[in-house]
Design a protein that fits this description.
With 1457 residues, the protein is of the alpha+beta class. It is 35% helix and 11% strand.
Length: 1457
């Protein structure tokens, strides 16, 4: 930074110039100034002194004052004072549609009253048209072949005005075009119009009077719609009518015109205005992108104001250049919003929202029909939860939890739903409707399904889409396959009852067999109930049981198995009394796997307080089979499943299919469900029967007879196992030293508290027995056999065979333990994924070449040559490199069968038709690995290679192209990986091969250490190893492998190099990348209400389906409109005329096939409405011509902006009597507290929930049912339907608030000081007033101009006070840096001569250069005076500014200036 100057004043050109420094001096002219009569200033002042009389003000003087004030006002700054009303609310800016419609109605009402210029213009036109009809039978515009009456164009209007007597006038520039719609005189009109109410002839009633015409909004400016009225004359003498009156724009009139005449009607009528149909089409187009209602309204406002400005400019320019001077001053041009003259308007955001939503509702049936007409041989489904954050809320509560999207094989949206919960059960009816719709439209049924959680969703999809079960035999990963199946003996009787009385009678037979001596009766017990999956998370995600749901109870005795269907029982009063006696009897012991939990569920579902009390206070009424099997030494884990118990105890196996386990138990039972339930009950009984006869193990030794099998414990850990051996004659043993070089021995005596055992297996080699002082490992090497003296208290009995461990399972079936990867119980699997959003921004092969036009960039709209492209894959940026790099085409196996060759045909059953998305499979493991590990990237690449193997012929073709162009293969892989991926198909091998390769991959990489950062440890953590094992299981189940005999690639076309370009059908990433991300961008700042969001989603979905589907089928852009209903009507008319339309015939006329499918805010499934007591409103299918408000949609001329309740809209879409919304009103808050206060919904348990999990103590299923009953009882109290998840969410928020309040109360004393400080009434600040702009512009100060009369060399006179620059300085601080504040006025002082000290070293060096040498010479010639300076400081570091400037000029260019 330069050293500050020490001379006073500012030299010319130095520093920042003042605002008015460049202004020319003001020169007095002879022009008269209003109010001064042209008197010179001196005379004006003198005149004012002598003639001013404050008591008298003449009319002329008053007029002068008024004129002066108006002149001042014309230049006054009117903005920035801080007193304007800002467009910002203290509350949420996202308004409801009802509020938008209210604003739109008020806006239309205000604009409907025509005044001034416009009313005069329209009245004149109306009279003219009347005269033309009287003379010619129709308006002259009709005779000339147009509906329009246009005002003169600007040029001609101005020319006419110019030559008029009054001169220029802008009035004609305010006129708008007029569209004349007179149905009675249109060409082709019917001879008579009939009343739709009574059928009588209508008569003409003339034109409208107020308003004369309706203003129609268009893109750049508005126009007027002029029409006439019709009357059903009730005063007719012969045949009186009903008196009904009609506008010429009413649908009843349009319906009587021919179709081609109807099509000419230009607008949609709203309450007081109208919107042009073409503008409505533009709105739909823009709303499909990120151009929502607010920017659209701004666009229309800009266009209108621009139109106004153009007209004003033309008018003023014409006045200025007129050849005909007028005696009259030109009339000023009207302001934009002057109601009497220009009367400009533009639609508000609220108006745009209202008309768009209503238009969408009218055309929704067409959009849903088009969506339902799509094929769905391959479906892929996924949730997104992020989009909900961008939706408007009800009092801060989201109306929906997620959006679920289903795409088909062409990447078209087969359906899309805003869901109230994350559970898949909410879209079950939607999937069933899709399956039915495919059949109705003649499409093949769904063959394959991709999800991001195949194992967790398999049962759901197979139950809702039955075609996914055809020719499917699931791979059962059962470690007990060598065991025979458990079967029910023929003598065992099986009884299935659903009738109340029959259930009670069967229970009576059981009670009759109770022992009379009071001993216990043991029965097998089990239950079945419906569960649901939420569709998120990875394999192992546990389905959630519906709270309070109970469907089947199974009881098993020695000779009979009872299966009771109890879905119809909901409360204590409806339980059969004898069944209740069995449940609460302490004499009847219920045994089964997790039997206490089952009984607890029964007590909660039916509110059996006595059963709850029995379970809380008595353990004698149940026997847990897991605990019993562990006691008998058969298993090591008491929580083992029934499969494991049967295998360990009975040496048999049972298969528990997920498809049945997760099926709909609430419906009528199928034979498969009955067999499943019977086998469960029988297995429980049989396991009990066998275990009862076995001795218990793990008990302290009481019988020390030789041969007793024992386990040796250290604390709770088994260190060795063996058996007791006979005691020697002398109760002691001699133990040699473990050191071979030592001959010492040790004698250990056998006392009554010690036992001699022979160790058979050492479990903990490092354990050091107290009596031996060396490890078991050393003792094993020294003693043969290993006979040791052990404390009797350390021994426990054991069984002959080791206990069975619970096998590793994922929800589909139990599987074997693989290598080093041990897998935990499924209840703990992927808990971190349960609530995760599956949205991802990563690329995958499934989303390439899928989305054209506005949904992808321009570069993807054509099949490109191979060019440089960088991958965005988060994990495997170079996967294609390593995938293909080492491929040797000559060594690829060519013999068949080859596990890396996809079978062309297969008649074998498929393991599954539901598959996991491969990217999500990789992500589940890679997210658990340290990305900073030096092996991470290489492992991710090889992971991808194992999952997908490239096609031999595709690689050869791509290699040939690069070789022909002279590129090396390694260069091609580095720089063209994405392009290569689109030209190389890949295959995911079959289950057996894939699982084997994954084992090799994981075993090889699991323990690899990082060579850079040793703190990373091995690549795989324990959690990663568990996840790797789960992935292997998923592969073995066949949920990853490509299906045999079905190609998952479609050929798009051929690029200029002759290479085929493919699109992959595999996976779900196209849902996230192709639609969810785009929607999040669209809704990012929209804050759309549910109605607007539903309408925009329908619009986007329809347009995307047409564009994407056409591109993926043809490889070309979709270049036509999106009004499919119009296209279908054209096809129908062309076929009727036996001619061809101008475009290719559609495969199916989608808008002409009725459907019950709906999208967006979908109907609440019937299962939920029934379960929770909601009343459903079944919406009839519109079989014929779609109608909206009883008007055929193609005749729609009116759109409503009337306010509509959000609750009415939601209930209409949800097809329920009341809307299903979260708790958000004060009445609902009060009701929630009232219901909880009754304690009727508490779950009774002796192990009450922790404070952090109080939601577990409420039966929300039961609470929801009661809540909805109250809704019916109090329909006017602003209380709406609820489902359990909404109540549970509110309860968690309430509990969190209560916990926070408790924490604050508990810590009040500790926080007292800060609380008192912040609550002190005196703690209030006083802030300086906010800065505002000056209200009047500052006129140039003449004192700042260079004085003309100043003599040369004389210092100018300084002004008395410096001008205000709005910059404040510290005067004292200025002096410390060598500046005199007194010299800092905006006065130009003469510049001192330049300083040239040739002796200075740096100058001497610099002047060696020619250019600087000449410059220095020039300065010397100019230096004819010694610079005058004022030194304010004695600081020797302060140098004069001229020397400072010279140093700056000669400094290297790299300095900091």
């Amino acid at each position: 930074m330069s050293t500050p100057s020490n001379h006073g004043g500012a030299r010319p050109g130095a520093g920042r110039k003042p605002k008015n420094a460049t202004m020319k001096p003001r020169v007095h002219t002879g022009l008269k100034v209003k109010g001064t009569s042209g008197i010179p200033p001196a005379q004006r002042d003198h005149k004012a002194e002598n003639e001013f009389n404050p008591t008298v003000l003449s009319a002329e003087g008053y007029s002068d004052l008024q004129s002066a004030w108006e002149e001042i006002q014309s230049v006054e700054v009117t903005e920035g004072h801080g007193d304007a009303e800002v467009e910002e609310s203290l509350f949420d800016n996202s308004e409801s549609l009802a509020e938008s419609m209210t604003h739109a109605e008020a806006e239309a009402e205000a604009e409907s009253h025509l005044q001034g210029v416009h009313i005069e213009y329209l009245l004149g036109l109306r009279d003219r048209i009347k005269a033309e009809i009287k003379q010619f039978g129709q308006p002259l515009c009709y005779k000339t072949g147009t509906f329009w009456i246009y005002p003169r164009d600007t040029l001609f209007a101005l020319h006419t005005s110019e030559i008029s007597a009054l001169g220029y006038s802008p009035t004609e520039l305010y006129h708008l075009p007029v569209f004349v719609w007179l149905p009675a005189v249109l060409p082709g009109c019917p001879d008579i119009f009939r009343c739709t109410k009574c059928g009588h002839h209508l008569v003409r009633k003339g034109f409208n009077a107020n308003p004369v015409a309706r203003r129609v909004r268009n893109l750049h400016n508005d126009y007027f719609l002029l029409t006439a009225r019709f009357l059903c004359n009730k005063d007719a003498a012969n045949d009186p009518g009903c008196g009904a009156s009609y506008q010429g724009t009413d649908p009843e009139i349009l319906a009587q015109l021919t179709r081609h005449v109807q099509e000419e009607f230009p607008a949609y009528i709203t309450a007081r205005g109208a919107i042009d149909k073409k503008l409505m089409s533009v709105m739909c187009t823009l709303f499909a992108g990120r151009f929502g209602p607010e920017p659209f309204a701004s666009l229309l406002g800009e266009m209108r104001r621009l139109h106004h400005s153009r007209r004003e400019l033309s008018y003023l320019a014409a006045c200025a250049s007129s050849k005909y001077p007028s005696q009259h001053k030109p009339e000023p041009f009207s302001s934009f919003d002057d109601k009497q003259r220009y009367a400009g308007t533009h639609p508000s955001t609220q108006y745009c929202k209202s008309v768009f939503v209503d238009w969408s509702r009218a055309h929704r049936v067409f959009l849903d029909r088009m969506m339902a007409s799509l094929p769905g041989e391959i479906l892929k489904g996924d949730h997104t939860f992020k989009l909900m954050k961008n939706m408007a809320k009800l009092s801060g509560e989201p109306t929906h939890d997620a959006m679920y999207t289903i795409l088909n094989e062409w990447e078209e949206a087969q359906n899309q739903a805003l869901t109230l919960t994350k559970a898949l059960s909410y879209v079950s009816e939607m999937y069933e409707d899709i399956a039915e719709g495919l059949k109705e439209h003649g499409h093949p049924p769904t063959s394959f399904m991709w999800t991001d959680n195949a194992s967790g969703e398999q049962a759901f999809h197979e139950s809702t889409t039955r075609s996914l079960t055809e020719n499917v035999v699931h791979n059962e990963l059962d470690p007990n396959t060598h065991l025979p199946m458990l079967t029910i003996p023929p003598e065992m009787q099986i009884v299935t009852y659903e009738n109340f009385d029959l259930i009670d009678s069967a229970c009576g037979h059981i009670l009759d067999s109770l022992p009379s001596d009071g001993s216990h009766l043991v029965i097998g017990f089990d239950i079945e109930y419906e569960v649901e999956t939420n569709g998120v998370g990875g394999p192992g995600t546990v389905p959630r049981a519906r709270m309070g749901q109970l469907d089947v109870i199974q009881l098993a005795t020695a000779d009979t198995i009872y299966v009771f269907k109890v879905s119809q029982i909901y409360s204590h009063s409806s339980v059969p009394p004898l069944l209740l006696s069995i449940l609460i009897s302490e004499q009847i012991i219920k045994t089964g796997r997790a039997v206490r939990a089952d009984l607890q569920r029964v007590a909660e579902a039916w509110s059996l307080s006595e059963l709850t009390a029995l379970l809380d206070h008595s353990k004698a009424c149940t026997i847990e089979l897991g605990a019993l099997a562990k006691l008998k030494g058969k298993i090591s884990d008491a929580s083992a499943g029934l499969n494991t118990l049967v295998a360990a105890v009975l040496r048999k196996r049972i298969t528990k299919s997920d498809a049945i386990r997760l099926s709909r138990w609430s419906s009528s039972l199928s034979q498969a469900q009955i067999d499943y339930a019977v086998l469960d009950a029988y297995a429980s009984w049989k396991v009990w029967e066998t275990l009862y006869r076995l001795p218990s193990v793990g008990l302290h030794i009481e019988d020390d007879s030789p041969g007793q099998l024992v386990s040796w414990y250290s604390g709770k850990k088994v260190v060795a196992v063996g058996s007791i051996i006979p005691m020697p004659a002398k109760p002691e043993v001699t133990v040699p030293s473990p050191d071979p070089a030592s001959s010492e021995t040790k004698i250990i005596r056998i006392t009554p508290s010690r036992i001699l055992i022979r160790v058979e297996t050492v479990m903990v080699p490092g354990f050091i027995p107290t009596l031996y002082h060396t490890s078991l490992e050393n003792l094993s090497a020294a003693l043969h056999p290993l006979d040791l003296v052990v404390a009797k208290s350390a021994l426990r009995t054991r069984s002959e065979t080791p206990p069975v461990k619970e096998p590793v399972i994922i929800p589909a079936a139990p599987v074997q333990i693989i290598g080093q990867f041990q897998i935990e119980d499924p209840a703990n699997m992927d808990s971190d994924l349960d609530n995760s959003d599956s949205d991802s921004d990563s690329d995958s092969e499934s989303d390439l070449f899928d989305v054209p036009q506005q949904f992808l960039s321009e570069s993807t709209m054509q099949i490109p040559t191979i060019n440089t492209s960088n991958s965005d894959d988060e994990y495997a940026a170079d996967d294609i490199d390593d995938l293909i790099r080492n491929v040797d085409l000559n060594t690829l196996p060519t013999t068949t069968p080859n596990p890396l060759h996809q079978p062309e045909v297969s008649s074998d059953p498929l393991p599954s038709r539901i598959f996991d998305d491969l990217w999500h499979v990789q992500d589940r493991l890679l997210r658990l690995l340290p990305k900073g590990h030096s092996a991470f990237k290489a492992f991710a690449s090889q992971f991808s290679q194992v999952l997908l193997v490239p096609d031999k012929s595709d690689i050869a073709a791509v290699m040939a192209v690069f070789e022909k162009r002279g590129f090396t293969w390694s260069y091609a892989l580095r720089s063209h990986s994405d392009a290569i991926r689109r030209r190389v198909r890949r295959y995911c091998p079959g289950p057996e091969k894939l699982a084997a390769d994954l084992r090799v991959l994981f075993d090889g990489w699991a323990n690899v250490s990082c060579s850079v950062n040793h703190t990373h440890g091995p690549l795989f953590s324990e959690e990663a190893k568990k996840q790797a094992a789960r992935i292997i299981q998923v592969a073995e189940l066949g949920l990853l492998s490509d299906p045999p005999g079905f190609s998952l690639y479609r050929r798009i076309g051929t690029d200029p190099d002759g290479l085929a370009v493919y699109r992959c059908l595999r996976g779900t990433n196209s849902i996230e990348g192709g639609i969810h991300m785009a929607l999040r961008r669209t809704f990012g700042s929209l804050r759309a209400s549910p109605e607007l969001a539903d309408a925009i989603l329908a619009n986007i979905r329809h347009r995307r389906n047409l564009a994407v589907g056409y591109f993926n089928r043809t490889g070309k852009r979709y270049r036509t409109h999106y009004d499919s209903w119009r296209t279908d009507e054209i096809v129908e008319l062309a076929l009727a005329l036996d001619i061809s339309p101008s475009f290719p015939m559609p495969t199916v006329l989608g808008t002409r096939i009725a459907t019950k499918e709906c999208s967006g805010i979908i109907k609440v499934p019937k299962a939920l409405t029934t379960a929770y007591g909601m009343h459903r409103v079944e919406k009839p299918i519109d079989e014929g011509t779609p109608r909206y408000r009883d008007v055929p949609v193609h005749l729609l001329t009116h759109l409503s902006t009337a306010p509509k309740s959000i609750y009415s809209y939601l209930s209409e879409r949800q097809q329920t009597v009341h809307a299903v919304v979260p708790i958000h009103t004060s009445a609902e808050y009060q009701l929630y507290n009232e219901l909880l206060a009754t304690n009727a919904f508490n779950i009774q348990s002796s192990r009450g929930p922790t404070a952090a999990r109080t939601a577990k103590s409420i039966n929300f299923e039961k609470l929801a049912f009661r809540w909805n009953q109250v809704v019916h009882e109090r329909p006017d109290d602003k209380i709406y339907y609820k489902i359990p998840q909404q109540l549970e969410r509110h309860h968690k928020i309430w509990a969190a608030y209560r916990a926070e309040k408790a924490t604050l109360l508990n810590s009040a004393q500790a926080r007292k000081n800060i609380t008192d400080l912040l609550n002190d009434p005196a703690r209030q600040s006083r802030v300086l007033p906010a800065l505002t702009l000056p209200k009047h512009p500052v006129k140039p100060d003449e004192t700042l101009s260079p004085p003309h009369s100043q003599s040369k060399g004389k210092e100018p006179e300084r002004p008395k006070s410096p001008p205000n620059t709005d910059i404040m300085f510290n005067a004292d601080a200025l002096r410390t840096i060598g500046l005199d504040p007194a010299t800092l006025y905006l006065i130009f002082l003469p510049r001192p001569a330049p300083r040239l000290d040739a002796s200075t070293t740096f100058i001497a060096k610099a002047t060696k250069h020619g250019l600087i040498k000449r410059a220095v010479a020039h300065w010397k010639r100019k230096a004819n005076a010694t610079p005058t300076m004022t030194i304010i400081t004695n600081d020797p570091s302060v140098i004069d500014e001229e020397l400072e400037d010279l140093k700056d000029a000669l400094s290297p260019f790299r300095d900091q200036l």
